[in-house]
Amino acid sequence: MQASPVSPGPLMELSTGFWASKTLAAAHELGLFAMLAEAGGTTPDELAVRAGIEGRPAAMLLTACASLGLLEKTGDRYRNTALADTYLVPGQPYYFGGWLQMLDRRLYPGWANLTKAIRTNRPTTWNPDEQESLFEGEDPELLAVFWDAMHSLSIFTARALGAAVDLTGRRRLLDVGGGSGAYDIELCKLCPELNATVYDLPFVVEIAAKKVADAGLSDRIGTAGGDFFRDATLPEGHDCILLSMILHDWNEDHDRDILARCFDALPSGGLIVISELLVNDEKTGPAPAALMSLNMLIETEGCNYTAREYATWLEDVGFQGVRTTYFDAPGANGAVCAIKP
Ligand SMILES: C[S@@+](CC[C@H](N)C(=O)[O-])C[C@H]1O[C@@H](n2cnc3c(N)ncnc32)[C@H](O)[C@@H]1O
Fold first, then answer.
1. Does this model's pTM top 0.90?
2. What pairs with residue 242 in β-bridges?
3. Which of 50, 91, 213, 262 makes the best surface tag, with the fewest CB within 10 Å?
4. Strand pairing category for 271-276 and 221-225
5. For the segment 178-211, what is each residue's pLDDT rounded down to a tens digit?
6. Is 248 a catalytic residue?
7. Could you confirm whether domain 9-87 is CATH 3.30.750.24?
8. Under CATH, what is the fold of the domain 97-339?
9. 333 C-alpha to center of ligand 1: Å?
């Protein structure tokens, strides 16, 4: 008797992955979760009236969201699950909607051209003939979604990093490419003796200053506008440097350059922390890191590197005592840390 073939079940799940992500994006774009948080629940007919859509798609959307764990049903009414209430309702402290919007508006069209990116080794979300990097210029479309998206991802990841990496005794953090300041906000909340500087491109630190003010931390978190490739030195006077989701944006030469600048800016005993979705040393996964790496193909010249690669580069510029700590968060699965002797 012939052995039964391997089931194609995993292929069905892989190939339809975008059905689930588009369901989440559409429900969020229609304001479903905000509506349910306010109204307490809905039937398909009520949703149709409130959203100005027909009953058929309203019922289908509610069923699909329930199947994905975003809604639960009691009697004939659908309500947000705790997951949706916590992360998908605008105004909540850990609102994840910025990330969803960037995925749907910016990355989804870029991923539609993934084969082209693989064939050409060029990004698909911007034109490398017209600009030097993803971050160049003040593209209002990018401004609107990119840093909100990073904030959604990083505000939660920063808490996991803060719990995993010992910052005891550190007083002044320099967050290189600190974006919206999410890490600074969370780490300063966690470590009462810590002050921080968000160092990023001038138009980005304006975004960070606003987030910091909203968090009531302007007295402990400052900003410094600059460019880590063009400035003569990075801001000094810090005993700890964080690079969160920076090195995966650039190629190895640029990364070695950034690490050398960090080394120069730290005093003896200074700590460097690289927070990333680390690919394992065997280069077989894990999937969130490996897929983020492909995301870097459509967006940047970089990729997601391994802890061993970072350790080599850190030691080459002079850092010692390299240690990797693993944790579980959406924007990073580990931190590679080292000390300037
Ligand atoms: C992927 S985001 C990471 C933001 C933040 N570290 C986080 O984890 O939320 C990369 C950041 O690097 C900043 N960046 C890019 N090129 C830069 C440069 N030449 N100098 C300073 N910052 C830069 C971007 O503006 C952006 O905020």
1. yes
2. 175, 273
3. 91
4. unpaired
5. 999 999 999 999 999 999 999 999 999 999 999 9
6. yes
7. no
8. Rossmann fold (3.40.50)
9. 19
